[in-house]
Design goal:
Blueprint lengths: L7 H30 L4 H27 L4 H9 L6 H27 L1
Length: 115
Amino acid sequence: MTMNKSNPLLTAYRVLAYVTGVGLVLLTVFTVAWLAFGASKTPVTIVGTFHGWLYMAYVVVAFILGMRLEWPMGKIVWTVLAGTIPTAVFFVERRVVREMKAQLAAKESEQLVGA
């Protein structure tokens, strides 16, 4: 499978990773404000709902990406779980993109040597 920056699956993964991460950080902030400082629960409900739906999309896209790139199941699980830990998804997304670039470079060099 060719994975480059214009690949729709990679683009979907990156967008969902960032949106899920931002949503989780906001959800954490609003939850702390609600529980610790008596702020309104409405933002928790709204952001929590959006984060939940977006996280499900993130899970599906991350799983499909991992299967297409033939990742071990442990790596797929860690990538999926990163969306449940505030800010972890940002680091995992960068690592996934970096590893994909290295994987593509290795495949390209194999193709050049084999040609």
